[in-house]
Amino acid sequence: MSWPLAFSTLGCSGLPLADVVELARSTGWLGLELRAADDEPVHVGLSPEERVAARALLESGGVTVLAVASYVKVARGEIGDDECVADALAHADLARDLGAPFVRVFPGAEEPGADADARAVRRLNAIAERLPEGVAVLLETHDSHPQGVDIARVLSQVSGDVGTIWDVMHPWRTGEPISVTKDVLAPYLRHVQVKDVLSPTERTPLPLGDGTIPLAEFYAALRELGYQGWMSLEWESKWHPEAVPLADALKVKPDFA
């Protein structure tokens, strides 16, 4: 079993959308996660006219927009509930306007624990009640909640169109076996992100297969789950400028054998 290929625009930060589309078409990685930030062509400050134009460009280019990748942190204590929920919903509206079925959010707690979980549960439930039709919110295995067990602990208390993104690196780098991540995320899994690095502490992006993340085991786990979504490369060159350019990384396709 194989999966269609996508990439996050984190790997080509600031690149105009027309060039992003051309990169997708020329490499065969035809799905896109659109990083939403002030320094990107996609962000919540776009006018209605700009959103229409962006969607038309993406649709005419033959790519599939999978997600708006926000930086909303639903477990963060330094912001209030209303601010967090409003920010997430603004990104969900952007996802709707661009034809994306998902909006990505992070946990982002200053310290993990019961209080952080409670904030995330409370806010995700509030977001889910007001999501635009056709858009789900996905909580990524990341930062304060890197493991599948962390995400499942939160999502088991959330109702509505809410799921998870399994970023393969973060559970692995914190010692959670892939078999455990697979089992606990099974009820919630909507999307996956693939990457490779040298070690849990040396996380400069490497072409798939050149690092030590057990990708074959990851692919096997997805097959066991019957996962039918996209396989998205999150090439973190914005945070690791020493990495090779995304265009070069996309030359290496995942080995699903």
From TrEMBL:
It comes from Catenulispora acidiphila (strain DSM 44928 / JCM 14897 / NBRC 102108 / NRRL B-24433 / ID139908). The keyword Transcription regulation does not apply. This is Xylose isomerase domain protein TIM barrel. It holds the Pfam family AP_endonuc_2. Gene3D superfamilies: Divalent-metal-dependent TIM barrel enzymes (3.20.20.150). The lineage of its organism: Bacteria, Bacillati, Actinomycetota, Actinomycetes, Catenulisporales. Keywords: Isomerase. One of its GO terms (molecular function) is isomerase activity. The keyword Lipoprotein does not apply.
